[in-house]
Amino acid sequence: MLVGADGHRSLVRQYVNPEKPETEFAGYLVWIASTDESALPVHVRPPADAPEVTMLDSAGGFLFGSVIQPHEASEGRRVGCTWYDNSRNDLLRRTGCLDGNVVVHSLAGSDIPEETIDGLARQVRSGWQDPWKTAMLHALEHRNITGTPIKEYVPERLVRGRIALIGDAVHVPAPITASGFNASLQDAVTLGKFASKGIAGKKACKVLEQYEAARLVKVRKIVQSGQSYNRSFGLGR
Q1: 8 A C-beta contact, residue 51 and residue 68
Q2: Treating both helix axes as pointing N-terminal to C-terminal, what angle do 180-195 and 203-233 enclose, rounded to 10 degrees?
Q3: Residue-level pLDDT at 59
């Protein structure tokens, strides 16, 4: 029995669903940036009791600020920004991030054209508040930013013979659903529950059939729940 848990660009998916092997571009990207708090002037740093995530704007696309706690006591906090942007899909195509409607890769900070950096900085200066404004401008200056095209994938099947898919390999919902990680865990738990009864011989195929019956409708609904947002916000796809 083979379980494909190899992410949104799954190779195993090509065997389970060769008619629909690729995720699709959802029509927008997300800029993700973070800056060491120590790089910011003291007077604009987030307070000690700042919430981990703050929604800053949703009128022109969701914009979130975050305060990222250190993993080690010797490290400092980081100030992060997550910015959903539907106005630069042509950039994704020019830089090879998209091949038709298939997402190939993200856009690294070092590969972002200078004019795009300047345009992003103008938008930040004109409408953002601190500490997010100063943090994002610092990230843009030092190119500590990544542009990630948003994908989606609605599965038609989870299983073929002795091969099964779990997680992003088989369902890729919009981030707005906040469900991708949890759904992946549920896939694994469900498969494990059926497999714990034994997978010797023909039992393996039966286990995978039970797994698909238990999860397919649920994960399809999860992805579909975010498609209305993708269709409305991703108008420039």
Answers
A1: no
A2: 170
A3: 57
Q: Are 35 and 135 in contact (CB under 8 A)?
A: yes
Q: Which string of DSSP letters, residue by residue, matches 2-62?
A: EEE---TT-STHHHH-TTS-S-EEEEEEEEEEEEEGGGS-GGGSPPTT--SEEEEE-TTS-
C-beta separation of 170 from 13 below 8 A:
yes
**How would DSSP label each residue in 88-154?**
-HHHHHHTTSEETTEE---B-GGGS-HHHHHHHHHHHHHH--TTHHHHHHHHHHHT-EEEEEEEEB-
State residue 237's pLDDT score: 52
Per-residue pLDDT averaged across 179-196, rounded? 95
Which residue has tokens 């992410």? 7
**What distance in Å separates the CA atoms of residue 98 and residue 90, rounded to the nearest whole number?**
9
Structure tokens at 77: 């906090």
What percent of the chain shows pLDDT beyond 90? 76
Kindly report the average pLDDT of the chain as a whole number.
92
Q: What is the model's pLDDT at position 234?
A: 79
**Percentage of the chain lying above the pLDDT 70 cut:** 97
Using alpha carbons only, give the angle 147, 153, 159 rounded to the nearest 5 degrees: 135
Closest CA to 168 of 156, 154, 147: 154
What is the tens place of the pLDDT at every residue in 14-66?
A: 999 999 999 999 999 999 999 999 999 999 999 988 889 888 876 566 789 99
